[in-house]
TrEMBL record:
The keyword Ribosomal protein does not apply. This is Highly reducing polyketide synthase gloL. One of its GO terms (biological process) is secondary metabolite biosynthetic process. Residues 217-297 form the Carrier domain.
């Protein structure tokens, strides 16, 4: 929905300033909803563009933050009615929009530590949040509430939250306590790297002898390594990788769209080829991911061999939809 800013500290904010920022999003959303219902339209999607301000707030923008929080809540309202709806809470954009047209404001935000996103990252987010399945799909009973049709992008900083130079507004938010704690766990990174030593060793052996990938044990081994990395990201490291049940579903394992972004980055760095977030989420089980990794490794090794034989150069011909989130 359209953006109208009437910045003012909340105690001094007038009713006109409040409604000027709130109405375009609130009344505009209701107008679209009512028009679609009156016309009896069966929509493929009902997509709202919100702002990260509704999640983290901004000083002097209580009205604008409230308007964006309404959009997030309205998606839940439509979902409860069995209607399609999704929302993207957009962070600071570097190459288009209000901030791109106001370089001084952009400079002020980046100097505080704000990370800025691009159009390409926004398009990738849209591909994730406009889900193909129907509203009302049941989630695992063990999960706390998660709005699967709301995606926040750009909620990160250029430096650690522990850095005194980092002045992002959410630094003092209690909800960020987890990230402060993660800084204190940097010592575990070395351990995590050693934990993956077995996988690194296996991949080196595969490069020398691709026939190892034909072993029926290889997909299971790789699946367990993938699961182990997933559990590390979820801060639930496996005590014994051999005990991991690779037949469990990705949902039960804890893989959602946000975690999949991190897993995709690890996947590409580890296996040397890419996998889209949508493909990863659609695999269904840990075992299926292991089998996908084996197929990709076979293809990568085969292409490398052909390149050496032909003396030519291979080019990346992947489709446009690539998630480039940090």
């Amino acid at each position: 929905m359209s953006m109208v800013l009437r910045d003012q500290s909340f105690p001094k904010m007038t009713h006109e300033e409040w409604t000027a920022a709130v109405n375009p999003k609130v009344q505009g959303t209701w107008n679209l909803h009512n028009a679609c219902e009156t016309a009896g339209l069966d929509l493929d999607f009902f997509l709202l563009f919100s702002s990260i301000s509704g999640v983290i707030g901004q000083r002097g923008q209580a009205n604008y933050a409230a308007a964006n929080t309404f959009l997030d809540a309205f998606v839940q309202y439509r979902q409860a009615l069995g209607l399609k709806a999704s929302v993207v809470d957009i962070g600071a954009m570097v190459d288009y929009g209000y901030l791109a047209e106001n370089p001084l404001l952009m400079e002020r935000l980046t100097s505080q530590g704000f990370y800025c996103i691009t159009i390409a990252q926004l398009l990738d987010a849209l591909a994730l949040v406009v889900k193909p399945y129907a509203p009302g799909d049941k989630q695992s009973a063990s999960r706390t509430f998660v709005n699967d049709f709301q995606l926040v992008i750009g909620h990160r900083s250029l430096t650690s939250l522990a850095d005194p130079a980092n002045r992002v507004i959410w630094k003092e938010d209690r909800r960020m306590g987890f990230y402060f704690n993660s800084d204190s766990e940097k010592a575990t990174i070395t351990k995590d790297s050693s934990d993956q030593g077995v996988l690194v060793s296996f991949l080196k052996s595969v490069t020398a002898d691709p026939g190892l990938l034909s072993s029926p044990d290889s997909p299971v081994f790789i699946a367990r390594q993938i699961a182990a990395q997933l559990f590390r990201l979820l801060l639930k490291p496996a005590d014994n990788e051999q005990d991991i049940d690779v037949s469990i579903s990705l949902q039960d394992a804890g893989l959602d769209s946000l975690v999949a972004v991190e897993m995709r980055s690890w996947w590409k760095g580890t296996f040397g080829f890419d996998i889209s977030v949508l493909e990863m989420l659609g695999m269904g089980s840990i075992a299926a991911l292991g089998e996908r990794a084996v197929r990709g490794l076979k293809e990568s090794i085969g292409e490398a061999s052909e390149t050496r034989d032909d003396g030519g150069e291979k080019h990346d011909t992947e489709g446009y939809l690539k998630l480039k989130m940090p």
